[in-house]
Amino acid sequence: MEGNHGLELGPVPREGFLPKQWIGATEFLSKNAAFDGRGVVVGVLDTGVDPGAAGLSKTTDGKRKILDIVDCTGGGDVDTSTIVQENEDGTITGLSGRTLTLGEKIRELNSSGKYHVGIKSAYELFPRNLTTRIRKERRDKWNEHQRLAKAMARSTDGKQDQAPDGDPTPQKKLEQGEVECQIAQLKAIEKDYKDPGQLFDCVVFNDGEKWRAIVDSEESGELAHYKILEDYRLNGVYATFGEHDLLNYCVNIYDEGNVLSIVVDAGHHGTHVAGTIAANYPDNPEMNGVAPGCQIVSLKIGDSRLGSMETHQGLIRAMAYLTPDESENDRRRHKIDYCDALNMSYGEATSRPDSGRFIAMARNLVEKHNVMFIFSAGNAGPGISTGTAPGGTSSVLIGIGAYVTPEMATQAYSYIDEEFYQVTGELKEPRSETEDLLDYYSDSDSIDSPYLNGIVDKRTKGAQQNRSQKNSVSSLGVPGIPYTWCSRGPTPHGAMGVNLCAPGGAIAPVPEWTLRKKMLLNGTSMAAPSATGSVALLLCMCKSKGIKYTSNRVRNALENSAKPLLLQNLSPGGNQLKQADRFGSGAGSVNVPFAADLLEQSADTPELDVQFSMSYMNSCGIRMSGIYLRDIHDSRLVRRFMIQLDCMKSDDDSPEGKAAASRFE
Asked: How does pLDDT run across 37-60, given as a tens digit for each residue?
């Protein structure tokens, strides 16, 4: 009897590590290489981005990838209001009590001899996972010295000094008592062990033109050994605390040198998100992010002191940074001018969806400044109405759900259809997306977008002419399912909650302090940056071709061009389901080529700049965004609703924009 069937998988396709093909980014860039996001700035509101992470140094056209890194939480702030004067021997005294040697270069830059000094604890600053690793390693090293001290103490407790009758001599009794006391003290010290961690002296000075800072990151007191830093946005200068921890940091200096902000990431999450959006590997382009040409602004909203949890204060500071401001106050001088799109892969439960100061500020950015704001919908599924705030509960923001395809399951998760393999000994051939497309659109009712009828007819006709086509990203259907943990809509106040979906897993760059280059992460946190990168590609195309756009127009294009998820059973003989999970996937998967076609073909259609919203007042006096009858008693009686329909347009004061809006008012 011959042996078992062997399974020859061959090399693992790298395209599945960051599945750009499912959103059409690979196809789009193969035809439009110059529309890779260059000229587009994306803000990432997250745990912070590591400026030294792989793939995040340069864009495809050679520009600096990360334009600015800002800590909005205040966790890295150092009070440097204490001013000291340089001593005659070229030293100053830090707040730790150490003598800090300035060095010739620093003394040349600061002719005044006055320095602002402060102090910062490493454990207050470092990300929690890194702190845990450092604490363990320091404790292990301390334990080693402790064991050595105990061994040395016991080594002096010999029995050679004995009286003739065998009893220890009086001198030896004293020595044995001393040893016992030493061991008792060592045990007491071990019991009361406390590790305060490193304390960094911080020095700030003005060179006559700008503020500069130095951090004594190795507690040596020799400041000449460290990089002289400045506001990161100026030249992108950053440093590393040490070769062991590999934690990169940069600084921003506020309030005339009285506040030094040391910016480090609070976790690996933000760097992974930024890499999914914009990583650029010139030698390995298949590992690129969705939009390798775009630039990043990192806004840290995850507080290191709280284990990367966000705070309202941090969110509002981030929104204040992003809101265009013509005033010339101190904070205004410390930010870039504009972001085209924003990604926030964060969310919490809320009892009052779509309300509050943060939502008001976000609405202002979207409606008045045409900023695309993309959010993760949440990972609290699969129950309905499990979207997290703000992404899964707000109508003004674009909430992104997460899905997985059979090919993603094989390439990223090493999943093999075991049932099919046991029967045939072969891997199952994936179902053609063309077949899915034809099945889904066999019913005329499947198409619900008045803007897509012509394009759909053209695409389905082409598909019928070539039914052998396999896995064409330009077709409309995506074989896959929302992840079970993906939050579902609708929102408690009746909105959809999940507007679009994108692949919810990616292998992308992570910070150097994690001691690895890349990591596989899953969640709507990974789906949102896939959608944000897609938006960067579309905005790049619009800017390059001179296509005027608004946030409403781009959103309408994305939602009207989305590919519905075609739910299917992954086992042999499973029946193809025609109805997608609208609450889990919204309008469907982001489809970059189709959205680009729609933006180009409708460039002279001002109606796409208009968004509609319906609302009504429920019996409790709460304004609802949709009719949501969830409980049994809600549908036992005939109910009548008075609906208010509002027409919302982006900030377009041109005659065409006003005319488009007036047609619906």
From this structure: 999 999 999 999 999 999 999 999
Listed residue (298, 323, 320) closest to 64, CA to CA: 298
Is residue 269 among the annotated active site residues? yes
| pLDDT > 90: percent of the chain | 48
Q: Where are the beta strands (DSSP E) in 329-396?
A: 341-344, 372-376
Q: Name the DSSP letter for residue 99.
A: E
pLDDT of residue 176: 76
Burial 480-516 (b: 16+ CB within 10 A, else e): bbbbebbbbbbbbbbbbbbbbbbbbbbbbbbbbbbee
Strand 565-566 and strand 478-479: the pairing is: parallel
User: Is the Cβ–Cβ distance between 15 and 288 less than 8 Å?
Assistant: no
For residue 482, cis peptide bond before it (omega within 30 degrees of 0)? no
- Could you read off the pLDDT of 580-631 as tens digits, one per residue? 678 888 989 999 999 999 999 988 887 778 777 778 887 777 788 888 888 8
DSSP codes of every residue in 193-247: ------EEEEEEEE-SSSEEEEE-TTS-SBGGGSPPB-BHHHH---EES-TTT--
Q: State the DSSP code for 392.
A: T
pLDDT tens readout for residues 95-110? 999 999 999 999 999 9
- 128-136: long-range pairs with CB below 8 Å, 24+: 128/266, 128/267, 128/304, 128/307, 128/308, 129/267, 129/268, 129/514, 130/245, 130/247, 130/513, 131/197, 134/197, 134/245, 135/195, 135/197
Q: For residues 261 and 242, what is the distance between their CA atoms, to the nearest angstrom?
A: 19
For the whole model, what pTM was predicted? 0.84
312 is catalytic: no
Confidence (pLDDT) at 644:
84
How large a percentage of the chain has pLDDT more than 70?
Answer: 79
The token pair at 622 is: 């709460």
Q: What angle do CA 17, 18, 22 make, to 5 degrees?
A: 115
Alpha helices in 248-307 (DSSP H): 269-278
Separation between Cα atoms, residue 495 and residue 586, nearest integer Å: 11
Q: What is the DSSP string of 62-86?
A: S-BSEEEEEE-SSTTEEE--EEEE-
Tokens of 188: 């007491």
Alpha-carbon distance 92 to 115, whole Å?
8
Q: Which distant-in-sequence residues (6+ apart) come within 8 Å of 162 by Cβ? A: 168, 169, 172
Active-site residue (options: 116, 269, 334, 493): 269
Q: How many CB atoms lie under 10 A from the CB of residue 138?
A: 13
The sign of the dihedral angle between the CA atoms of 50, 51, 53, 55 is: positive
Q: Up-side HSE of residue 354: CA atoms within 13 Å toward CB?
A: 23
Sign for the CA dihedral angle at 533, 434, 455, 35 comes to positive
- Distance (Å, rounded) from C-alpha 157 to C-alpha 171? 12
Measured between alpha carbons, how far is 358 from 352 in angstroms, rounded to an integer? Answer: 12
Residues 6+ apart with CB under 8 A from 145: none
Cβ contact 514:415 at 8 Å: no
Residue 16's pLDDT band, with cuts at 50, 70 and 90, is: low
Q: Exactly one of 298, 385, 474, 525 is catalytic; which is it?
A: 525
Phi-psi region of 221 (alpha: psi -120 to 50; beta: other; left: phi over 0): left
DSSP state of 255: G
Query: Considering 46, 50, 216, 231, which one is annotated as catalytic?
Result: 46
Is 581 an annotated catalytic residue? Answer: no
Distance in angstroms (rounded) separating the CA atoms of residues 95 and 82: 9
- Strand 644-649 and strand 623-624: the pairing is unpaired
